[in-house]
Amino acid sequence: MTFREMTVEDLEQVVEIENRLFSDPWTKEGFFTFLTKENTMFFVIEEKEKILAYCSMQTVLDEGDILNVAVSPDRQREGIGYFLVDSMLKMAEMIGIHIVHLEVREGNGTAKRLYERLGFKEDGLRKNYYTDPTENAVLMTKMQE
Questions:
Q1: Coil, helix or strand at residue 112
Q2: What local confidence, expressed as pLDDT, does residue 76 receive?
Q3: Helix H or strand E encompassing 13
Q4: Which end of the chain is more exposed for a tag (fewer CB within 10 A), N or C?
Q5: Environment class of residue 41 by beta-carbon count within 10 Å: exposed (0-12), middle (13-18) or buried (19+)?
Q6: The pLDDT of residue 23
Q7: Which residues are catalytic?
Q8: 64 has which bridge partners?
Q9: 68, 49, 50: which is closest to 58 by C-alpha?
Q10: What is the pLDDT of residue 132?
Q11: What secondary structure letter does DSSP report for 27?
């Protein structure tokens, strides 16, 4: 498995994973818009030219906001998500990001446990943030060294 920066050539596979996982998925154009921004980092995990997972973070000064994290349904529960987010956090730290925020569905216990293992702490709630179905977002933050 390889951790690397996402390229435009990866978008077809990334959008395919996105559509399989999310009720309100990002479009290819949406990914492209963020992928081309200076203050956004996008990474993928690739194995034998197949994208297994992706994540992104938008940065402002010394803070980052994780925009999305996804692992292909057929490769979940293998530690890929942990490796992916941990690697992205290390890259962010190298460029001076000291505080990282994210939102996660309140009912997504698997993702919340992953983020807690990575050092994130719950610090707020956004009521009815998600749609399809309507659900609260748990706000989580990690202070990096």
A1: helix
A2: 93
A3: helix 11-21
A4: C
A5: buried
A6: 85
A7: 103, 115
A8: 59, 100
A9: 68
A10: 83
A11: P
Q: Are 26 and 42 in contact (CB under 8 A)?
A: no
Amino acid at 102: L
Residue in the structure block whose two tokens are 């990866």: 10
Mean pLDDT by 10 residues, the chain (145 residues): 96 97 92 94 96 97 96 95 97 96 95 96 95 93 91
CA 144 to CA 38: how far, in whole Å? 22
CB-based burial label for 53 (10 Å; 0-12, 13-18, 19+): buried
Q: Which of 7, 26, 6 is nearest to 17 (CA)?
A: 26
Per the listing, tokens 């435009």 go with: 8
Hey, what are 80's tokens?
């890929």
Tell me, what's the pLDDT at 56? 97
Cα distances (Å, whole numbers) of residue 37 to 33, 49, 58, 69, 131: 7, 25, 9, 18, 26
